[in-house]
Design brief:
4-stranded antiparallel β-sheet, 7-stranded antiparallel β-sheet, about 325 residues, alpha+beta
């Protein structure tokens, strides 16, 4: 059943127009967009601020260098090739391992040197970039994600999206890759979104293709037991991105590495609104509350405020109880 506009308003759901005009337009200075639209700039900026990101193997910025991609990734068991200016998960190639014959994706599909070169060449031509502009291929080490999360994902690395408003982490979800999403944590491609309680990092509600889910479609593992390790560290990392970028309305995407803990994957100055569906709650009440807070509050106090005021018990916990 479709919800009526009045029902959406009662739930505090915001749409794209309000997001774009009231929050992005008001709190995000457009001159700062390149800091987050370009993944390479984001990575270099994070390094200056002491924020951990996946190791950079190298970059390819011209067609002449495409033929050297195999040499660049030699010696790295797994790696990721992505467009610096891509969006929506487009153009991200994940290689889980390599052998003498070629490169193997998480799905088991085998690629060869010419496949890597073709993919990098397409990135440089702007096939995946915002506006189709020429781009740079960024090559990163593959995340060795926390094994405690392995039952909640399929052939890919799960990530955590946190919406940060004026430096306060206000809503979060975990995106779990599936066979339908080809191992990518992208909701539009079929990943499962799990709303997370800001206070504890525990699962609230699961959705896939706009429908409620209580388990992972491929592993069969129930979602109610999902709890994010190092949750306080992750929220602090997300909140710090406000000072790092100067952007007031921001989507922070993070991963949990087995050795390094929470790591910043990328940032988004125009984060999508599906996080509301995953949480079963709208953003507006939280945004309104933060707008009433004083300026100049430090990171630790902002995180503590969010955890106190946005704590919830979700559908998955109630189903178990």
């Amino acid at each position: 059943m479709w919800a009526t506009p009045s029902q959406l308003k009662i739930k505090g759901i915001i749409g794209m127009n309000r997001r774009n005009i009231r929050y992005i337009g008001r709190y995000n200075d457009r001159r700062l967009y390149p800091l987050v639209d370009d993944k390479l700039q984001t990575k270099l900026l994070a390094k200056r601020y002491g924020i951990t990101t996946p190791d950079l193997i190298g970059t390819v910025s011209n067609q002449f260098s495409v033929k050297h991609i195999a040499e660049m990734v030699a010696g790295h068991p797994g790696f990721v090739i992505k467009p610096a200016k891509g969006s929506g998960g487009k153009g991200i190639l994940v290689v889980e391992r390599q052998d003498a014959e070629g490169y193997i994706k998480p799905s088991g599909h085998r690629l060869y040197r010419e496949d890597l070169e073709r993919h990098v060449s397409n990135i440089l031509s702007g096939l995946y970039s915002l506006g189709g502009s020429p781009d740079v291929a960024v090559v990163e080490a593959l995340i060795d994600f926390d094994e405690s999360l392995s039952e909640y994902t399929y052939e890919g690395v799960p990530d955590i999206r946190v919406i940060v408003f004026k430096g306060y982490p206000i809503m979060a979800m975990m995106r779990l890759s599936t066979a339908a999403s080809d191992g990518k944590a992208n909701l539009h491609q079929g990943a499962v979104g799990v709303g997370l309680d800001i206070a504890t990092g525990t699962a609230l509600r699961g959705v896939q293709f706009d429908r409620t889910r209580v388990d992972h479609p491929d592993t069969g593992h129930e979602l109610s037991s999902l709890k994010i390790p190092d949750w306080d560290v992750l929220l602090t990392l997300a909140a710090n991105c406000y000072e790092m970028t100067g952007l007031g309305y921001l989507g922070t995407d993070m991963v949990l590495d087995r050795r390094h803990g929470p790591m910043l994957l990328e940032l988004n100055a125009r984060p999508g609104l599906a996080i509301q569906m995953a949480n079963g709650e709208g953003l507006r009440p939280r945004l309104d509350l933060i707008e009433r807070q004083d300026e100049g509050i430090d990171v630790e106090a902002r995180v503590a405020f969010a955890r106190q005021h946005f704590a919830r018990r979700g559908e998955l916990q109630e189903a178990v109880a």
